[in-house]
């Protein structure tokens, strides 16, 4: 392991690498925003007894960016073992950080409110963490058992590792805090996890693929091509921040076209195939129209590539002192 990985952690939270006395080993952090049906399905699979890991070994934190009293009531009524927090309403990266700031466990396991964790999910992560004291970041397998069906549906499938998508990752809490968590400059659900992966690598953090830590991600219908295109602002920020070589615009446009056309070709032809092609044209047009402004903003923020930077963000007090 590199020297960087052995450096003192000095977490912004002032937290000890060890959990407070009596705290669980694991804290599951779920960001949510008005998705009661999918959140319910996810929490059903994290209930005491639903996971093979002893329920005393983990806690579940739901950080709610909608700050919806109905969500709070749902958890209080049906899932009293889970903690509800009003989110900061600054995007998914900030919402995950907010949930993590309330965590008491030595390890943080992140998933999303529309996933279905397998029974062995946490136990597989727990075994991997116990087997190697040097590992500080874990990545699990994400499937889409139902399949896409048509190219207008999508799910973040991760069968081989290396993607580090936030719907199924785990990190040692002290290391996560030492790095500043997710970069809250990523205000939409795109690229914030890739950015964290690159910062972990730059810090020399030991990472491990744990395919037994499985979650399933049911497919969801794609938003409009314009909305998909607007998400690419985060990708431009990521590319500039991490020093990707020019020309960025053509690299981005080619990547989008290749991804979308590959999905269309891989599935049976249908009316949704035509809709997907129309959506692709709208997505590419949106990127073309906004790219110059996005790049200008990103280069103002990062005059020189700085993969270690995170947007200014505040963390809560140490986990041991948080109110329950």
Notes on the protein architecture:
It is a single chain. The longest helix is centred in the last third of the chain and has 31 residues, at 271-301. The protein has helices at 3-6, 36-44, 69-78, 92-101, 121-131, 173-178, 192-202, 225-241, 248-266, 271-301, and strands at residues 26-32, 58-64, 82-86, 107-111, 116-117, 137-143, 153-154, 168-172, 207-216, 220-221. The model is unreliable at 1-17 and 314-324 (pLDDT under 50). Helix content is 40%, strand content 16%. It is globular and about 55 Å long. The chain has 324 residues and is an alpha/beta fold. It has 2 domains: 16-221, Spore Coat Polysaccharide Biosynthesis Protein SpsA, Chain A; 225-301.
Keywords:
324 residues; alpha/beta; Spore Coat Polysaccharide Biosynthesis Protein SpsA, Chain A; 2 domains; eight-stranded mixed beta sheet; two-stranded antiparallel sheet; 10 helices; 16% strand; globular; disordered N terminus
């Amino acid at each position: 392991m590199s020297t960087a990985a052995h450096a003192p952690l000095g977490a912004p939270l002032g937290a000890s690498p060890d959990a407070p006395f009596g705290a669980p080993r694991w804290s599951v952090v779920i960001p949510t925003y008005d998705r009661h049906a999918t959140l319910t399905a996810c929490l059903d699979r994290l209930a005491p007894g639903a996971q093979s890991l002893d329920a005393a070994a983990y806690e579940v934190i739901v950080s709610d960016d909608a700050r919806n009293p109905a969500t709070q009531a749902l958890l209080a009524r049906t899932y009293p073992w889970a903690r509800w927090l009003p989110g900061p309403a600054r995007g998914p990266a900030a919402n995950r950080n907010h949930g993590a700031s309330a965590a008491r466990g030595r390890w943080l396991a992140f998933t999303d409110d529309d996933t279905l964790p397998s029974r062995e999910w946490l136990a597989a992560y727990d075994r991997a963490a116990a087997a190697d004291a040097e590992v500080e970041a874990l990545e699990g397998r994400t499937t889409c058992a139902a399949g896409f069906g048509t190219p207008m549906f999508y799910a973040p499938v991760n069968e081989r590792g290396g993607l580090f998508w936030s719907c199924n990752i785990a990190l040692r809490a002290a290391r996560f805090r030492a790095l500043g968590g997710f970069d809250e400059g990523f205000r939409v659900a795109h690229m914030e996890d890739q950015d964290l992966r690159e910062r972990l690598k730059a810090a020399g953090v030991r990472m491990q693929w744990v395919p037994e830590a499985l979650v399933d991600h049911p497919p969801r219908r794609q938003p409009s091509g314009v909305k998909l295109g607007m998400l690419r602002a985060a990708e431009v920020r990521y590319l500039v921040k991490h020093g990707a070589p020019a020309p960025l615009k053509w690299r981005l446009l080619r990547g989008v076209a290749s991804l979308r056309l590959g999905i269309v070709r891989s599935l049976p032809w249908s009316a949704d195939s035509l809709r997907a092609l129309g959506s692709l044209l709208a997505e590419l047009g949106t990127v073309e129209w906004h790219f110059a402004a996005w790049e200008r903003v990103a280069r103002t923020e990062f005059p020189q590539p700085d993969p270690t930077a995170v947007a200014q963000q505040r963390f809560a007090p140490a986990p041991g002192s948080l109110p329950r």
